[in-house]
Hints:
The complex is a heterodimer. Chain A is mainly β. In chain A, 5% of the residues lie in helices and 28% in strands. Chain A has two helices and twelve strands. In chain A, strand 5 (118-119) and strand 6 form a beta hairpin. Chain B has a single domain (12-31, 39-227), classed as Aromatic compound dioxygenase (Protocatechuate 3,4-Dioxygenase, subunit A, Sandwich), CATH 2.60.130. Chain B is mostly beta strands. In chain B, strand 9, helix 3 and strand 10 form a beta-alpha-beta unit. The chains are: A mainly beta, B mainly beta. At the A-B interface, helix 1, strand 5, strand 7, strand 8 and strand 12 of A face helix 1, strand 1, helix 2, strand 3 and strand 4 of B. The complex binds fe (ii) ion (FE2). The site of fe (ii) ion has 3 residues of chain B, from strand 8.
Amino acid sequence: MTQPLDIMVETPSQTAGPYVHIGCIPTFAGVEGVYPEDLGLSPIEDDAQGEVITIVGSIYDGTGWAMRDAMFESWQADAAGVYPGQDGADPKVTGFCRFAADKDTGEFTLRTIKPGSVKGRNGQVFAPHISIWIVARGINIGLNTRIYFDDEDNSADPLLARIEQRPRVDTLIAKKTGDGTYRFDIRLQGEGETVFLDL
Amino acid sequence: MTDTAALMPRRREVHPDPYYTDYKTSITRSPSLPLLSMESTPSEETGPRFGHNMLGALDNNLISNYSQGKALAVGERIRVHGRVLDELGRPVPHTLVEIWQANAGGRYRHIKDTYFAPLDPNFGGCGRTITDENGHYEFMTIRPGAYPWPNRANDWRPMHIHFSIFGHAFGQRLISQMYFQGDPLIDLCPIAATVRDRSQLDRLVAPLDMQNSRGMDYLAYKFDIVLRGRRQTMFENKPEGM
Ligand SMILES: [Fe+2]
């Protein structure tokens, strides 16, 4: 026998199910009047510093079908790479957004500002990125991934450097489609499967 | 120990298998390649914070929040309460907890729910609260009904309440479900069974809590939630190898 470790275990996840919108974005789901507005409608307020960008994409299941029922959350730093709550953060950047796949087309849209590069421990510097968390019916534990940008220098990013199969790096990089607009598609399974994260 | 310390790695073995054939939708919605694992970074160690001032007075009362207090929802009145803790057993104060559920007949107020159990005109099905300084939260609601769902030919969800919890770091983000003590449908449910280890599934089953029930008013159920903790060390701020 030894001393007990006295460490508890995280509560097991369960799927968010098909009705996650009722709990997280009820007004979007048609449950109106309980809250004044849905949480996380925008990650920025007017006058946030930085370049305003719009990221559009879809999330595809293993058959290539664009899922209509997924819900996403994003979390990001401000234009200087400072996270909300940290010293010196841009007060106009809340950093958090909730958005859902369109129920008819499956397309999602995230309007935000381009974040700056982020300093980690031991001198690590991460290229500008937005963290994404995905839940839906059939997803038993929320999936984490990141959006990087194809017009930034991603060559020294410590997370991207960990991806052994170099073509897969591409799955985390949004492609510029115009002035301030990007495309970012997510593939849950199979050919071109997005790199999902455990960190 | 600070809010910038690394998160303890997620213990995937206590969580559901992403791919579980009895839950058919998971077959095409589960990654087939391994997750990319590495130590958490500031992107996971920070997270959104929400203030108590965003809450309305009825936000955590699903019996009356849809009608804004004008009428009460139909069903068995229950109080659901508990604490949000981290893996070190410490309370997680001031963190947002959101719930959603079916009405007493097992019907959701959602365009995709076509079950013929009727909607309750006084039940919306969502609620939220923020834990106090000791990590406590509570909701008043009605006990949701079990409901059938299209999976295998005759699958029923046990009575359950969906929970969404933030913690203080984006990497702590968690969605789960609370079940009710004694519900025989738990053992038959393929979604509950995605948690392979029965002792872990038991942690999602809230016990009846008569001591916190109120006579002639409501029954109580207790549901504690544990989020990922942070590694405790004084060595984090030194350059690597020193
Ligand atoms: Fe449900």
